[in-house]
Amino acid sequence: xxxxxxxxxxxxxxxxxxDRILLRAGPSGLTSRAVTTEAxxxxxxxxxHFEDFDAFLADFVLDRVEQLAPxxxxxxxxxxxxxxAGNVTSALAAVFGSVAVAIVxxxxxxxxxxxxxxxxxPAGVPVLTEAAEMIAAYLAAERDLGRLPAGTEVDGLAxxxxxxxxxxxxxxxxxxxxxxxxxxxxxxxxxxxx
Length: 194
Known about the structure:
Structural class: mainly alpha
Helix content: 55-70%
Oligomer: single chain
Shape: elongated
Mean pLDDT: 86
Distance between the termini: 55 Å
Number of strands: 0
Radius of gyration: 19 Å
Order of helices and strands: HHHHHHHHHHH
């Protein structure tokens, strides 16, 4: 790789390269050499900005968690519009159509990454935990509007939706489930009439 090439936003470029590799080759294909090659920079660039590769991966995972914030705001703003099942289906498709499923595999694959994440994310799996909180907040808003029964336990319901959604998307060798398959699952989990 040529040296001396200025990179505008190193983190963004390296994280985008990691996304592409993770989706294309899975956790085993995600190496520091693969990331820097994909980003078009020297290997030393990654190590200049991060303590080691697991530190890079931890920041990458946490950055992808932060990227759920706009999706969470958009979902919550849809409370009271459309159908609850339709809104949840769209949100799950957005979460699992991203790099989220591959990140779960990455966290499972790398012991050093899990150890680093435990320091800042002591419970749950990053991305999935955040997605469950996003769904729970939306369902709570719909419950407050009377579109879900008053006694609906939204945290457990959100966890079921995330877990079942993850199972539908977990097979990266095939195509993602059809929207109607996802919608059918969401409708079967939500209380009747949602």
